[in-house]
Amino acid sequence: MKLILLRHAKAQKASWDVPDRDRPLQERGHRQTLHLAQYLPG
Fold first, then answer.
1. Who contacts 23 (Cβ-Cβ below 8 Å, separation ≥6)?
2. From its phi and psi, is residue 12 left (phi > 0), alpha (psi between -120 and 50) or beta?
């Protein structure tokens, strides 16, 4: 069994009116996600 620890991808700046989990990803965050997908088991 493997344990994989991840940090979330880069999201938009925090705002009082948008909950953290609902913040959209920045372009950098989308690239990070695509890069990570290459290494995760499918």
1. 11, 12, 13, 14, 15
2. beta
What is the C-alpha to C-alpha distance for residues 1 and 14, in angstroms, rounded to an integer?
35
Amino acid symbol at 2: K
pLDDT in tens, 1-42: 888 888 888 888 888 999 988 999 999 999 999 998 998 877
Residue 2 neighbours by CB distance under 10 Å: 4
Q: What are phi and psi of 11, to 5 degrees?
A: -110, 170
| Residue 21 C-alpha from the chain's centroid | 10
Cα–Cα distance measured from residue 19 to residue 2, given in angstroms and rounded to the nearest whole number: 31
